[in-house]
Amino acid sequence: MKLEGIRVLDLSRFLPGPHLAMMMADHGADVIKIEDTKSGDPARVIGPAEGGHTVYFRNANRGKRSLAVDLKSEAGREAFMRLAETADVILETFRPGVVDRLGIGYEAVCARAPQIVYASISAFGQSGPYRDRPAHDLSVNALAGIASLSVDGDGKPAMACLPPSDMGGSLMALAGILMALLRRQTTGRGDYLDLSMFDTVVSWTAHVAGRVFADGCAPDPAAERTQGGAAFYRPYRTKDGRYITLGGGEMKFVVNFLEAVGRPDLIPLGREPAGPAQALLHAFLEETFAQRTQAEWVAWFAGRDICFAPVLDLKEAFDDPHLAARGMRERDSDGASHLGIPINTAILREIGYDEAECRALVRDGIIRQSA
User: What burial class does residue 314 get, using C-beta atoms within 10 Å of its C-beta: 0-12 exposed, 13-18 middle, 19+ buried?
Assistant: First the structure.
């Protein structure tokens, strides 16, 4: 286990932070999820439940231990600080300034635990005009220009099915934490990381920022290669009302397909820029794919060197044998998709609290045990 021996205190909520900490737990880190004593992570009550937990919560928090602590109390802050002295990483996703007001910000923690790598994930970062602005993934994407690139047939911004700034923030923060832990091996000291979901998605626009940087104008989604402007990089409707995707515009794939369907005369159109110049090729492909069902196209593409995939619904995708082969869906002995997360005072006993002190903290509402 690559992260065995690393302890993480996870103060985060919802998705970016919990997902990051779960990945560290999956690789052997001891992750302790610190929740409040009233309601805990809101993901506990969002969406369908299975086996006593919401699927959302379990899919972002498996492998963690958990402790509910009243961080507004002096005793709760002391318990957190004593945990910090044993930890390697602290992760938080509160609005900027909240942890400092609670007395558990980086400077306060570093004074007692200089080894800590302290990561703050926020919508817009710890500085800048939008620092204090509340936002989740959709609003971040809107201000980053990302929402304007995914549009429907009428040009209306479409709701993304996956949260790019949430998940991108998670992965970027994980990279920063691991780099800081690596550097700590030579310096002996931790670090502070200011991770912005906004910065993350902006940094992911390398493939669509050309018009802005080179021409000083916004891109037209309909003419962008990765937004449907390229005939060989878009979905097509099949005879049975389902869809397939062509997913690679490299000329070898264009040639392989058009020769196989007897239209090598259209190959030059595949070399044209995305957008109107490929309109005739796009129209041909729409007409062609409408002549067979999705299953018939799947059979036709088998063994051919062409980037292609059927559009599956989420249940079909989770039932797919490749997903199972990669270990991306596992069940416990009760049939649940993931294990539950125990919350217990054993965590406090590990850092020197005796049983009587633990009972007193529970009695006074400083910590809470729950399932």
Answer: exposed
Taking the chain (371 residues) in runs of 10, the rounded mean pLDDT of each run is: 94 95 92 93 92 87 93 96 98 97 98 98 96 94 89 79 92 97 97 97 91 91 83 96 95 97 97 94 98 98 96 87 72 52 60 79 69 42
Report how far apart the first and last C-alpha atoms of the chain are (Å, whole number): 27
Give 235: exposed, middle or buried? Use CB within 10 Å, 0-12, 13-18, 19+: middle
Q: Which residues contact 225 (CB under 8 A, 6 or more apart)?
A: 207, 233, 249, 274
217 three-state secondary structure: coil
pTM confidence score? 0.84
Beta strands in the chain (DSSP E): 7-10, 30-35, 49-50, 53-54, 65-69, 89-92, 117-122, 191-196, 233-237, 243-247, 308-310, 367-368
Q: Is 166 a catalytic residue?
A: yes
Closest CA to 7 of 24, 28, 31, 25: 31
Q: DSSP for 144-173, please give it.
A: TT-TTTSB-TTSPBPPPSS-HHHHHHHHHH
E-assigned strand segments in 145-250: 191-196, 233-237, 243-247
Hunting for tokens 């910065």 — which residue is that?
199
At the topology level of CATH, where does 7-203+341-368 sit?
A: Rossmann fold (3.40.50)
Q: Residue 244, class by beta-carbon neighbours within 10 Å (0-12 exposed, 13-18 middle, 19+ buried)?
A: buried
Topology at the third CATH level for domain 233-322: formyl-coa transferase, domain 3 (3.30.1540)
Domain ranges of the chain: 7-203+341-368, 233-322
**Spatial distance between the Cα atoms of 183 and 322, rounded to a whole number of angstroms:** 37
Give residue 272's Cα distance to chain centre: 35
pLDDT tens track for 89-124: 999 999 999 999 999 999 999 999 999 999 999 999
Among 70, 137, 166, 199, the active-site one is 166
Which residue do the tokens 């200011």 mark? 194
Does residue 234 contact residue 274 with C-beta atoms inside 8 Å?
no
Computed on alpha carbons and rounded to an integer, the radius of gyration of the chain in Å comes to: 25
